[in-house]
Specification:
Elements (H helix, E strand, L loop, with lengths): L4 E5 L6 H15 L6 E5 L5 H8 L4 E5 L16 H7 L3 E4 L2 H7 L3 H14 L2 E6 L3 H5 L3 H12 L8 E5 L13 H18 L8 E4 L7 H5 L6 E4 L6 H10 L3
Parallel strand pairs: 1-2, 1-8, 2-3, 3-4, 4-5, 5-6, 6-7, 7-8
The structure holds 2-phosphoglycolic acid.
The site of 2-phosphoglycolic acid has 13 residues, from strand 8.
């Protein structure tokens, strides 16, 4: 049985003050939950504040991105060592917005995962098809290509996969429970065919997850958690989501 894993991706939202207000309200709401892994990924500028406030709690801290080099002349970038020093245990890599707006490819994603893992960060790897790809029947091919490229020469330990159909992100359109599970089944089959330890890997679903649809998604056998954007911006709805993920 894989432990449920619910993660908040705040994207480019929340100042330091807003981060503080969220965490102060959120922690008491989830303090007794010990059967779900909970994670928050604030923007870089809020990491230090979040790290201080989350210390000793049951909530993990992640960054939303990381660079693929250890250090050097890479203006504007952030290294794995910097994330670890500020208190991150996890990092999200390859989010579709990074792929779409910032030119990330499976190759850069692969380099980022390798360095992050070598440094000791746990990784949430995001994959997923666009609407056009789904409508032209290419979903599984796209997932295979992304998995193959992103996980090239990598073992699966300390990696969580987030299946996020691009057409469901921030659109209010969720994949149906069955549609999401079908993709998760496919992902797990690919992992089992190509890597060791596929059974242990948690696969999160992402794309318009809300308190009212989380239970249906989580009741699917291959859905182990969620990566949540919009509904994770308010402490009340994020805590409801976490509670909805309990068995
Ligand atoms: P959403 O975002 O929940 O707002 O659709 C999910 C994500 O991008 O991780």
């Amino acid at each position: 049985m894989r432990r449920p894993f619910i993660a908040a991706n705040w994207k480019m939202q929340k100042t330091i003050g807003e981060t503080e207000a969220f965490i102060n309200a959120f922690l008491p709401m989830v303090k007794d939950i010990n059967d779900v892994d909970i994670l928050i990924a604030p923007p870089y500028t809020s990491l230090e504040t979040a790290s201080r406030l989350l210390k000793g709690s049951n909530v993990f801290l992640a960054a939303q991105n990381v660079y693929l080099e250890e250090k050097g002349a890479f203006t504007g970038e952030i290294s794995p060592d910097m994330l670890i020093a500020v208190g991150c245990t996890h990092v999200i890599i390859g989010h579709s917005e990074r792929r779409q707006y910032f030119g990330e490819t499976d190759e850069t994603v692969n380099k980022k995962i390798k360095l992050a893992r070598n440094k000791g960060l746990k990784v949430i790897l995001c994959i997923g098809e666009t609407l056009e790809e789904r409508e032209s029947g290419k979903t599984f091919d796209i997932l295979d290509t992304q998995l193959k490229g992103s996980l090239k020469d990598l073992p699966l330990d300390e990696i969580t996969i987030a299946y996020e159909p691009v057409w469901a992100i921030g659109t209010g359109k969720t994949a149906s429970d069955e549609q999401a599970n079908e993709a998760h089944v496919h992902i797990r089959k690919w992992l089992a065919a190509n890597k060791e330890g596929a059974e242990k890997v948690r696969i999160q679903y992402g794309g318009s997850v809300k308190p009212d649809n989380v239970k249906g998604l989580m009741s699917q056998p291959e859905i182990d958690g969620a990566l949540v954007g919009g509904a994770a911006l308010q402490p009340e709805s994020f805590s409801e989501l976490v509670k909805g993920a309990r068995g």
